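Structure ticket #2291
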Amino acid sequence: MGITAIVLIEAEPDAIADLGPRLTEIDGVAEAHSVAGGDTDLVVIVKVTDHESIARVITEHIAKLPGIKSTSTMIAFRSYSAEVMDAAFDGFGD
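Resolution: structure written out below.
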């Protein structure tokens, strides 16, 4: 079982397009999304095995990228996915 963190990123406007692909190159980053609304420009999903890895990925890698102004991190305590739920019940009722 792993740990999932959702990282909200405020970035320099001219850096957003380049940051998306660069973020996905970081070990532990599962997804990066450009978003609209509020102060958040990018949302990153981090999936790692332990809390120390979250700290390392965010403080040593994400936050140090040029163009990142600030980050805010949320730790998921439960995850829900239609794919996971469908797979759990695959074959029942056939």
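Closing remark: Residues 3-88 form a domain with the Alpha-Beta Plaits fold (CATH 3.30.70.920).
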